[in-house]
Each structure stands twice: as structure tokens, then as C-alpha cells.
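I am going through a labmate's work and have reached the protein record below. What it holds is a sequence and that sequence's fold in C-alpha cell form. Please read both lines and tell me whether the C-alpha cells look consistent with the sequence. Do not assume that whoever made the record got everything right. Thanks in advance; the entry in question is below.
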Amino acid sequence: MTAEVDRIITKKTGFNPDLSSNHIRCVCHKIALIVASGLKAIDTNTSGLTKCKKKTLGHVPFLDTIPENNNTQGAAFLSGDEDLDVPVLDQSDEDCEDETDELAGSPGNSETMAGILSKVDFVIQRITSSSSKRSEFELWRTKLDDPGPTLIAGYGIRWNIKWQSRDRAYQSRNVINKLIENEKDRQERDGGKSFYQDCEITQGDWEIVKRLNDILSEFYFITKKMEGDHSSCGMLLVEYQLIKDFLKDRLGSVTENEFRSMLKKMIEKTETYLAEALACNTILLTTMLNPSYRLSIFLAYFSSHHKYAKILLQQKFDERKAELAATFSSRESTPQQPSQPQKTSHRRPIDDLNLFPGAVESANTDKLANYLGGKYKVLPADADQCLVWWKEHHNEFPTLASLAKDYLACSATSASVERCFSAAADICGRDQGSLAPRTIEKSVSSHQWLKQGFKADGDFERAQVIVSQDLVDHHESRHEAATASK
């Protein structure tokens, strides 16, 4: 795809952007591939599970697997979570029990990590697929005063959905154990087949689930962070390095062969993607133009690339300075109110690392030296606020600000774009494929505004009256239906 974009841009403008060589691979895809490599090492496959023929309550992924081959076309990926509005099963539990074997297969060998996870997934899917079991779950959650969340089914291949499913199950493990105990008592009393196929989840099993979830939670946090509304490319190298450090730290604290095999595979994959990112000049420049890192991050973590990165930045700085010399006159920035970045409870060792211990507010006329020396330094914890920093200090560093405007616009992930494509596909179906791009854009925007409760006025006031009345009628009909069913 990038080669075709290169061809089109070159044909229309005469300038070759060389995107084939400077293509930034989506970090959310890469994180998913790192996780997949680790889970494959412990063989947590879903071969024993099949999709339910009936809809289940909760998250139901439906995407294809993500091939790592960059030449493969049509690979889809959504790294964010999707809250699907799925109706509750109306069928009786007898109907569901008739399809026990089709619903969730059978639990695996409980002596292996893959078997334990398969067993936990099986029980979760059995509970979420039955309306009576969901009701029993809510009842005992109240009786046991358990603050754990409701369960979601972990169908599909998306690792983050499985992580959420098992994380919720672990938090509600007391309720799940109670339901299994109740089923065992019922079977001893009345006979018949066990709804959970005689599965038992021990405390040791739950600890395995928790330890795996603790590892995957770091990837979940990084994925959500990189999907945020900020400049992400300048954070890419550091995030890969933090993943690598996190995995090595965990590797030193585990003794089980399965965990060690998983972590080693993840480290190997992370090192591959880190080397790939370090070979991209665009990523090197965006990292240095992030005021939380600048050139000091290369001394701290990527010393082998420090000299090359410094030469690269100086070269781009001189080129841009020459371009701006005739049209741009620098002036000192006026003092502005410092920005207040959003704080997060997820803290990492690098967040409070002072990369510029010798920084002073000098009057040096060399703007590049002042910047690299740490003037107006910010901590790595606020790396996602780099655009705010440049807004406050762009007048003092005009040449660097011009570079930052170009390079910090690069995104490290395509998740938001693909989410937009998915929204367009949901709104504009196959029979509307001939719509103009501008019409699709208007439709998607209008749909999002309606979902968020925006009221149209002016030329669209009459349309808003119709939409508002339709919403009122819809809510009234749902209320009447609910009242009639009682």
C-alpha cells in the first residue's frame, strides 16, 4: 500500500515521500503480535472452543487474525474495546443446555497453563451463555457482598478481550466458585449432567490466571496509552524499551518453564520491533523532538544510536533553519500559564527519571544547544503532553518548532483511523457503496453527534424535532414492552 501511495504522490506532485522506507508500523498491531507470540509459546489456543450459535451477553469479537506479513492486504484490527449492545437471551435454559457441546467445547488438560486457562474460559462462557446462571451469579454476588464486576464472554482472538474476561473472572472468583459448588450439590442431589462438566477451579488455578493477567495488563495499559489523543510517534522507542525492561524483570522473578518460555518469546519479538523502529529516521527525530526525551534518552537507553541521532538532528536543524531564514524572525516567547497534564495511577520507573540533571536556564544564543541541554525540561511521565509544551515555547525555538510541527504529526498507530473506517462501514452499508467520500464523512459525523446527544439547530431544526420525537417514541415503546412482560 505504501508503495502505491508513493507512486500516486510522486505522479501528482513530483515529490517522492519514500513512505516505503519511512513507514511507521502501527504499535498497537505490534503489541498484539508480541502478546500473541508469548501466548502461542504456552499454547493458549482456542481449538477446543467454538462460537455459540446464539448471542451472548458481553463482548463478542468478530475480527480476523492479524497476519504479520506486511504485504498481506485487508488485515483488520481494532485495538480498542467495543461495547456491543447485545440483547439478553430470551430462550429458556433448557434450549441452551441442549447445545452444551456446541457452545463452549470442553475444558482442556488442567495440569498445564493452557489447560487451566481453557478451563477458566469454559466456565466463564457457560455462565455468560445462560440467563439463569447470570441471574444466579448476580444473586450470589449480592449475598457474598462481592464487589467484583459482571462477567463477559472471551470469545474470539482479540487478546485484550480475553484479558478483560479473565480479569473480571478473577475479581469475581468467589462467586464463580460458589456457582460451581452449587452445581455440584445439585448434581449429587438430582443427578444428571454437570452444567460445568465437573470443572473445579482451585486457588492455584486462580493464581495462575492472576499472574498471567498481571503481565498482560502492562500491554493493555500501553495499548490504551498509545491510542490516546496525543502525538504518539515520539513515545514509540521508549515504550518498546519499557516493554523489554518489564519482561526481563518478570523473567528474573519466575521459575516455571511455561512462564519463562512465554516471556523469552515476547522479549525476542520486542527486540525485533525495537530494532525496526531504531532504523527509522522519522522515529528518531520525533523522539528527539519530544521535550521529555530530547537527545538525552539516547544516552540513557540507546547509546549505540546516540552519535547518529545527534548528527541527524543537526542536519535537519540546519536545513530547516536555512529554509526559514528569509521569512521567519525569532522572538522570545511570552510567559504562559504552565499546563497541567493529566495524571495516571499507573507509574513506571522512567516516569520520574531526570534526564537533564545539569539543566540550567542559560542565555546561550544556540537554540539547539539550549533545547538539548534541557531548558524548560519536563519529566518522562508527561511525554504525551509534548504538543502542549511546543505550543508554550514555539517562539523561543522557532526552527525546532517548525520541525516538531512536521514530525510530531506522525502517529505510531492506525487504530483511530481503522475505528473510523469501522464506524463508516456500520453506517453506510454495501448498498450505499456509491456514496461520495464527503457524504460518508457527513453521515459518520452526524451519527456520532446524535449518539453524544448534540442538538441540531438552524437549517436542521426541523430534522432535530423529528429525531427527538423518534427517540421519545422509542423509549416509550421499550418501557411499555418491559411493563407488559412483568
